[in-house]
Amino acid sequence: MSTQSMFKREDVTSGKRAFSMSRTTIESAFYGNNVERMNDLKKAYELARAAAGTVTTDMPVYKPEEIGIPDGAKILLFNDGETVGRFAGARVILGEKGVNEGEIAEVLREAMFLTRYKKMYHTQAYIGLDTDFIIRANLLIPETYENTLYNWLLNFQYLTPFYDDMYGKSKPIGDEPDIYIVSDPDYKHPKFPNGLAYFDPEHNCACLLGMRYFGEHKKGTLTLAWGIANRNGYASCHGGLKRMVRKDGAAHVLGVFGLSGSGKSTLTHAKHAGKYDVTVLHDDAYIISSENGSTVALEPSYFDKTQDYPLTSGDNQFLITVQNCGVTSDESGKKVIVTEDIRNGNGRAIKSKLWAANRVDKMNEPINSIVWLMKDHSLPPVVRIENPVLASVMGACLATKRTTAEKLAEGVDKDALVFEPYANPFRTYPLVQDYEKFKYLFEHRNVLCYIINTGHFTDKKIPKETTIAILEAIVDGTADFKNFGPLSEIKTIDVDGFVPNFKDGVYIALLKKQIEGRVEYLDSLEDFKGGRDALPSEARTALISVAEKIF
Q1: What is the pLDDT of residue 408?
Q2: How large is the angle between the packed helices 388-396 and 431-444, nearest 10 degrees?
Q3: Are 391 and 410 in contact (CB under 8 A)?
């Protein structure tokens, strides 16, 4: 499936999918005489290296010629200012309650007008890495933000003859137009003092104003790509997916869903001490076909936290760029990076596709298991949900805690338990569409559902090694699942030190509180955004049934 880049003249009219007030305002800025096309990755590297504030480290990029950048390229570091994470409060989505396109369009027109005083770069990339799903995206960004342009081309698939041919051979996705995104990190509007991330998802366009952090550009692009996938028969996934083949040849395709800091990257890239032949699709963004269960990766590289990778880590060999980290001189006087979030939280890096030598861009084998990664201290290390409705609603009530990947509004408790449906805060369409797609996978494609707690059980931290051992037991078929207390549709396994005690009144009270919290969350969706994210009554009924059987 591919998007549409050009239009017949008779189709350039109101009422056609590609044309709206927002889309036309945004796309028109790409054609100004102050705009320079920049699709050459090697030149983008040189521009980023020469940009004011860039640190060219003395750390070489591994096999740069295979990535498409110049021989001898070095890892580039560029740091933002105060904000080093995403800010959900800046997101404004057309179609949600209270969003007036006419009012937003005034802001867009002023911002687009002021770009005339700047040299702007127009670059393009592909999102999706197979003829089943490959769409084209366009980014417009001012001079001095060459590092953002370079990172965007590295994160997604820059244009090459191979991918141009793939795009050309892909069947058009109905009347879906290409993605267009304008970014001006320096523009601030009085109505949006902390920045604006505006999306017109139905017309595949966005505008990022006052947003420096590269993660806003990455996730902003994925926001629109996931919306296109959702409209065209795919479940959009913020998580990782891998295939594990046992020594006897049996294969298991497993997807893990979680927010930053939940362990999705760690679990996706776990080596398992050579017990399996492991193939990785991606650790952050992919889609699942409702038709046949196959999966397609949306990005070639990885935008990962550097918190757990000290300078001496072997994984740093695969870094291409680094953001919001430090730099120092080593014993030889070489400029090297300072990671581990010493400078600030949420240090980030783009790692090349070569980091996972076992990467593929598509898996034809249907997915076998979906794992909701949660940080909910009422849950043991793992449970299996055997009711499709309950399995999907637990994904819709995925519990976690905020991380340093986000900039929080004033007064928000960073330690409070929050619910983030399907670990995807980037949805631009009604939640019920994800709910129905995942329920369909559980009910009609026989996908198994697990919840793995990567936080604490009661007051005891669950070690990473325990979690990995659980994954291996699932794949090996050796996990001895039994009823979770009085519940036959939820099962668990005994893990030393983490066995729930249903005779303990304190534990029962905690479990009750967490289930009631999920019910309250579903109830809140009835009014939130005008009820746009409300789920069918069966979702609430499934949770109430669990509560009644326990209490």
Answers
A1: 61
A2: 150
A3: no
Burial class (CB within 10 angstroms; exposed 0-12, middle 13-18, buried 19+) of 459: exposed
Could you give the CA distance from residue 363 to residue 140 in angstroms, rounded to a whole number? Answer: 33
Q: Looking at residue 122, what is its pLDDT?
A: 98
Dihedral over alpha carbons 499, 502, 507, 513 (to 10 degrees): 120
Element holding 538 (H helix, E strand): helix 537-550
The count of other CB atoms within 10 Å of the CB of residue 113 is: 10
pLDDT for 286-334, tens place per residue?
Answer: 999 999 999 999 999 999 999 999 999 999 999 999 999 999 999 999 9
Identify the pLDDT of residue 402: 61
Whole-angstrom Cα distance, residue 118 to residue 116? Answer: 5
Of 474, 297, 459, the C-alpha closest to 382 is: 474
- Please give the domain boundaries of the chain with CATH numbers for all domains: 2-53+82-233 (3.40.449.10), 235-290+368-550 (3.90.228.20)
Tell me the H-state helices in 379-463: 388-396, 431-444
Residue 243 is inside which H or E element, if any? strand 234-245
Beta bridge partners of 453: 374
Helix axes 388-396, 505-524, angle to 10 degrees: 80
174 SS3 class: strand
The CB density around residue 347, as the number of other CB atoms within 10 Å, is: 26
Residues 6+ apart with CB under 8 A from 238: 226, 257, 259, 284, 285, 422, 423, 424, 426
Asked if 285 and 129 count as a contact pair (C-beta separation under 8 A), the reply is: no
For residue 201, give the nearest of 171, 231, 167 by alpha carbon. 231
pLDDT value at residue 416:
58
Cα–Cα distance for residue pair 281/300, rounded to 1 Å: 9
Q: How far apart are CA 484 and CA 387, in angstroms?
A: 13
Distance CA 260, CA 223 (A): 16
Residue stretches of the chain with pLDDT short of 50: none
| Widest pairwise Cα distance in the chain | 73
Amino acid identity of residue 276, one-letter, is: Y
Q: What's the whole-model pTM score?
A: 0.94
Between CA 89 and CA 537 the distance in angstroms is 29
For residues 81 and 382, give the distance between their C-alpha atoms in angstroms, rounded to a whole number.
40
